[in-house]
Amino acid sequence: MKILAIDSSGLVASVAIMQDNVMVAEYTTNFKKTHSQTLLPMLDDIVKMVDLDLKEIDAIAVAAGPGSFTGLRIGSATAKGLGLALKKPIVAIPTVEGLAANLFATDALVCPIMDAKRHQVYTGIFEFVNGELKTVVEQKAVSIDEILEELLTYNRKVIFLGDGVEVNRDTIETKMKDMCLFAPAHLSKQRAGAIASRAAVYLKEGKTQTAMEHVPVYLRLSQAERELAEKNKAKGE
């Protein structure tokens, strides 16, 4: 089983190839270039590096959201284009779940947080049960204070990761005190390898989409849509 995985849901761009539970290659960058500049060249490089014929892949996995609106559109468009051209299924992995999959078999709760701007984060709560990643609270867009208050009710250590950590670390440490831990740099951001690993689980469970069916998950309106709604509300429409 060969899986091509893509994650461009945040600042990181990442592409990976996994075959039969072996991570054949992974290419990840976190640099000030747009995904429109980096993603396709990265995909081309990694395919050439491992002499992969794209016709040989069995599925295309993609971080399906939430995240950067532009990044999600680029990742989903790339996955859809490949899926249509190659006639391969899409495996849509929730971005927050993909982040949680960077970790493994910890006794602590896992709480990915992505900076959603406007004083909010994209987040969820996960745990490992007998080595398997389980969702405790589905991904959602909430204030950092709201998710921290929710986490405190579990009275368990929590590992935080994601680009929302840098923005909210002081708040997390103040509220969680000695109940918080932070993932190290090599595990703290999106990785296509984690998306591929989750996709292998989804494939066994038959959770796939056609390229035509796939759409990214935004969880909330874009800035342009919010501004239009506010403008219409002000007009009384």
Explain what the structure shows.
- This protein is of the alpha/beta class and 237 residues long.
- It has 2 domains: 2-94 and 190-220, ATPase, nucleotide binding domain (Nucleotidyltransferase, domain 5), CATH 3.30.420.40; 96-182, Nucleotidyltransferase, domain 5 (2-Layer Sandwich), CATH 3.30.420.200.
- The protein contains 7 helices and 10 strands.
- It has helices at 35-49, 69-86, 95-100, 144-152, 164-176, 192-204, 223-235, and strands spanning 2-7, 13-19, 22-29, 59-63, 90-93, 109-115, 120-129, 132-143, 158-161, 180-182.
- It has a 5-stranded mixed beta sheet with strand order 3-2-1-4-5, with helices on both faces.
- It is globular.
- Residues 224-229 have low confidence and may be disordered.
What is the topology, as strand order, of the major beta sheet? 3-2-1-4-5
Global Rg: 18 Å
Work out the count of structural domains.
2
CATH class of the largest domain equals Alpha Beta
The helicity comes to 25-40%
Q: What number is the mean pLDDT?
A: 92
> What's the SSE pattern?
EEEHEHEHEEEHEHEHH
How many E strands?
10
State which percent range the strand residues make up: 25-35%
CATH-defined architecture of the largest domain? 2-Layer Sandwich
Quote the distance from N terminus to C terminus.
53 Å
Q: Number of helical runs?
A: 7
Q: What is the structural class?
A: alpha/beta
Low-confidence stretches: 224-229
The CATH fourth-level homologous superfamily of the largest domain: ATPase, nucleotide binding domain
Based on CA inertia axes, which overall geometry fits? globular
CATH topology of the largest domain, by name, is Nucleotidyltransferase, domain 5
Main pleated-sheet profile: 5 strands, mixed
